UniProtKB/TrEMBL annotation:
Cofactor(s) listed in the protein's UniProt record: FMN
Gene designation: azoR
Binding residues for FMN: S10, S23, H24, S25, M103, Y104, N105, F106
Name this protein carries in UniProt: FMN dependent NADH:quinone oxidoreductase
Family: Belongs to the azoreductase type 1 family.
Species lineage: Bacteria, Pseudomonadati, Pseudomonadota, Alphaproteobacteria, Rhodobacterales
The keyword Ribosomal protein is annotated on this UniProt entry: no
Family annotation (InterPro entries): Flavodoxin_fold, Flavoprotein-like_sf, FMN-dep_NADH:Q_OxRdtase_AzoR1, NADH:quinone_OxRdtase_FMN_depd
Keyword NAD: yes
Keywords in alphabetical order: Flavoprotein, FMN, NAD, Oxidoreductase
Cofactor note: Binds 1 FMN per subunit.
PANTHER family attached to this UniProt entry: FMN-DEPENDENT NADH-AZOREDUCTASE 1, FMN-DEPENDENT NADH:QUINONE OXIDOREDUCTASE
Flavodoxin-like fold domain sequence ranges: 3-210
Any one Gene Ontology molecular-function term assigned to this protein's record: electron transfer activity
Enzyme class of the recorded protein, top EC level: oxidoreductase
Amino acid sequence: MPTILHIDASARPGRSDETRFGSHSRRLSAKFVEAWRARRPHDTILYRDVGQTPPAPVTGQWIHAAFTPADQREPWMREALAESDTLVDELLAADVIVVGVPMYNFGVPAQFKAYIDNIVRVGRTFGFDRNRDGEPYWPMVPAGKQLVVLSSRGDFGYDPGERLEKSNHVEPGVRTPFAYIGITQTHSLAVEYDEFADERLQASLAQAEQSIDALVARLTAKRLAA
């Protein structure tokens, strides 16, 4: 059965439909999982809250350990990579990765960037060989995984062709490293107008939730047909 990896990255601890000042991105990611469970109740759900419990940032020791061949690592190196190993194992186990990631200052939260830095791992999620013909890097994550990016934005107009498209570094900042390690099938939805807190925000939330239901229906239909 498929495994869903559910990740939240918001600094806000609650969902906006349950808690005052709660997170819209947490609300959307929870709606996705709820809709998935309604259709496929026996699938495995893994949950990781990097917004409240962020991974440790990459350090010089981490880099030294990651680029040391596994059979040559000292105990301190294995310890330095232990959290990263757990995060990579979760990612490799998942068939669908759904991420609730708000826009902070035009990009992803620092907590989620730390997550990305921990899962983009030489020898585990991408390969590197200076002597390889052509491109020295290659993805190592098995093909077929689906990435769902559910975001929230204070302003509006960040989608392709709109006024702030060039200022949006959230979806590109997630798609690029995930594609680098081999996860190229991506779906994204976002809520806008958070800072306006008026009827436009409510309409954006309603539209996003309808789109989530439709996306889950498409993805689960593919699973049932496989």
